[in-house]
Specification:
Length: 289
């Protein structure tokens, strides 16, 4: 059976670095980014250097031709130090997301998997979860963010809906992955800091093998249609963490996601030492202090 052709944007970035080995084995992979070197300066093989913010989509339309799926990880970071000044840079990221949707739509691509973020709905976390006024954030709730980065990620999600709805003549299948904390979170990183950060990241932890599994399922799951017939899906990207405060219901039900890791088990010794042991200075509960 022929491999699926998958276009991966942001191919020199951090999330891509966790996916590339598995993707190279599984898919006929095309890579694109604005640079061909990763964070550590290492050259990433086969990356086509292209700026997807360019409104002239004819310059990169060939990358989408014949692709079965696009995984969009591309993101341009703002140089503005103050959050209130990040609006213009995030608008560029929204325009890039639309260029990806439109180029995929025009090329007849079946599905776009978009790297959204937990920040698309981080107002609930900031204002309610950490105050113990809310237990779980669902993908069914209105995405609300108190910063422009999160606003842009929510915009990616909503921007995908018209393309999925069939309003333009066909339905582009769209999966949004609200990525949590895709890194290791050992207790040693948090010693000398507010241990509430440790508790938060235990809930948000997204192991490498779970990240790979979820993105593969987001590409390959045959049917993601909602009850109304629109193939548009939002899922949270975290491991099966005991301390989770984002719901995995849609990922489990629609994609068949079965996370293999739980930060509570993975970091049990650190949790006992810092949060639940006799010398702990903070309560051992899920998120707040």
């Amino acid at each position: 059976m022929a491999k699926r052709a998958v276009l991966l944007t942001g191919a020199s970035g951090y999330i891509a670095s966790q996916l590339l080995d598995a993707f190279r084995d599984r898919f006929e992979l095309r890579l694109v980014d604005v640079a061909s070197r990763g964070r550590d300066g290492e050259e990433i093989a086969d990356v086509e250097v292209t700026d997807l913010t360019d409104p002239d989509r004819s310059k990169y339309a060939h990358l989408f031709d014949g692709a079965d799926a696009v995984v969009h990880l591309g993101y341009g970071r703002s140089r503005q130090p103050d959050e209130i000044d990040r609006f213009d840079a995030e608008c560029d990221n929204v325009r890039m997301a639309n260029n990806v949707y439109r180029a995929a739509f025009d090329a007849g691509v079946r599905r776009v998997v978009m790297a959204s973020s937990n920040h698309a709905a981080d107002f609930y976390e900031h204002a309610l979860i950490h105050r113990h006024e809310k237990e779980m954030v669902s993908t069914n709730e209105i995405p609300l963010s108190d910063n422009f980065y999160g606003w842009a990620k929510a915009a990616y999600e909503l921007l995908g809906f018209p393309y999925a709805s069939g309003a333009f003549g066909r339905k582009l299948q769209v999966v949004q992955v609200r990525i949590g904390a895709p890194r290791e979170v050992p207790g040693s990183v948090y010693e000398g800091r507010d241990l509430a950060e440790f508790k938060r990241d235990l809930g948000a932890h997204f192991s490498r093998r779970d990240l790979v599994q979820l993105f593969v399922k987001a590409i390959e799951t045959p049917d993601i249609e909602r009850a109304d017939g629109v193939p548009w899906l939002v899922v949270y990207g975290i491991s099966g963490n005991t301390r989770a405060f984002w719901s995995l219901e849609s990922a489990r039900r629609v994609l068949g996601y079965e996370p293999q890791d739980d930060s509570e088990v993975k970091y049990a010794a650190d949790i006992a030492r810092l949060l639940t042991g006799p010398d702990a200075t903070i309560g051992g509960g899920r998120v707040g202090g």
